[in-house]
Amino acid sequence: MKAMILYSPAPIESRPLKYMDVEKPSPGRGEVLIRILKCGVCRTDLHIVEGELKPVKLPLIPGHQVIGVVEDVGEGVEGVRRGERVGVPWLYYACGECRYCRRGLENLCENALFTGYSVDGGYAEYMVAKAGFIHRIPGGIDDTHAAPLMCAGAIGYRSLKLTGLLGKSDATLGLFGYGAAAHLVLQVARKLGLRVYVFTSSRWKIEKALENGAEWAGSTSEEPPRRLDAAIVYAPVSSVFIEALKKIDKGGRVVLAEIYMTPIEKLDYSLLWHEKEVKSVANVTRKDVGEFLEVASRHGVRPEVKTYRLSEANEALIELKKGGHLGQLVLDVA
After folding, report:
1. Which pLDDT band, with edges at 50, 70 and 90, does 305 fall under?
2. CA–CA separation, 286 vs 69, rounded Å?
3. Is 318 helix (H, G, I), strand (E, B) or coil?
4. DSSP assignment letter at 178
5. pLDDT at position 70
6. Which of 5, 126, 153, 182 has minimal CB crowding within 10 Å?
């Protein structure tokens, strides 16, 4: 089978992913073999390829926003049929037994494995996955638009839940950074009745956010029309986090939704006073993914997408790094 292989992390401009023939995997006990149709390109992939996230497996096939068809099932697999269309998210496996899993926090599992990081992922024609950690894709969502829902959508949905604003009418949410996850969260938040302000350094993204339904949009340093009840920071830059803290109201919460962020060099306590909170997002649970797929199906939430061929994964990641596309980049594998 064909796959894009990372042998050593390096700047994406050097095109470190190699398009190669590798052996087609076989499913073990409790696993399924998936013929991959599409795989989303995520900023986490870029952090892995460039080494900002310390490698845990090399060589590695990246990719964790996978849509495909079950081609084979291993021993002990029940409730999964050949030919089913499924998705594989970032959380590849959780043990179900550690103290975090027992508390319903499988996203923090001490023995977790992550797709395209701990194990080979979706930048390939085939992959194996744990049968208990795949997700059926609702009808009405095509393969290309389903792929980004597995991470950008799911992590965006978890970050939205962690703001504490769901179910609160007329609350104001700030989105700092407007890209793959934020443009999906904007759709969901508006459907659920929240007021949404978008902060971004790009003029064209400000205009796009307003077109997409934001009540207000401006630069990160601008003062919004009213203080925020909560904010989600998608930009991996600590100065943006500081700006978010400045703009939330008393008792507000800032949710950090990136897996990586530049070091926070100075934090004045006055920005945290008045019972403000800071909460990070670490991975997603199966429940998050399932809930979000249902929400996306019910409310017609769809990402803006641009497709590349599997062999063009380096070029897709270069475009992602440059920030020239608002929505999600998707590899066309089939």
Report:
1. very high
2. 19
3. helix
4. -
5. 98
6. 5
- Give the CA count within 13 Å in the CB-facing half-sphere of 333: 30
In the chain, the amino acid numbered 275 is E
Cα–Cα nearest to 310, from 288, 287, 332? 332
Instruction: For the beta carbon of residue 121, count every other beta carbon within 10 angstroms.
Output: 28
Q: What amino acid occupies position 301?
A: V
For residue 10, with 0-12 CB atoms within 10 Å meaning exposed, 13-18 middle and 19 or more buried, which class applies? middle
- Kindly give the pairing relationship between strand 66-73 and strand 31-41: antiparallel
Range 104-108 contact pairs with CB under 8 angstroms and sequence separation of 24 or more: 104/285, 105/285, 106/285, 106/286, 107/158, 107/282, 107/283, 107/284, 107/285, 107/288, 108/282, 108/283
Residue count of the chain, please give it: 334
∠ Cα 205 207 210 (to 5°): 105
Return d(Cα 126, Cα 35) in angstroms, integer. Answer: 5
5 C-beta neighbours (distance < 10 Å), count = 18
Token readout for 35 is 């013929």
User: Sign (positive/negative) of CA torsion 301, 307, 312, 316?
Assistant: negative
Residue 34's closest CA among 97, 90, 103, 81? Answer: 81
pLDDT tens per residue, range 158-195: 999 999 998 887 899 999 999 888 999 999 999 989 99
Cα–Cα distance measured from residue 230 to residue 221, given in angstroms and rounded to the nearest whole number = 17
- What confidence score (pLDDT) does residue 325 get? 73
One-letter amino acid at 317 equals L
In the chain the first and final C-alpha atoms are separated, in Å, by 12
Paired tokens of 154: 């799911």
Query: Phi-psi category of 18—alpha, beta or left, where left has phi over 0 and alpha has psi -120 to 50?
Result: beta
Q: What one-letter code names the amino acid at 288?
A: D
Which residues face 231 on adjacent strands? 174, 254
Contacts of 76 (CB under 8 A, 6+ apart): 29, 30
- Position 91 pLDDT exceeds 80: yes
**Tokens read off for 68:** 């495909």
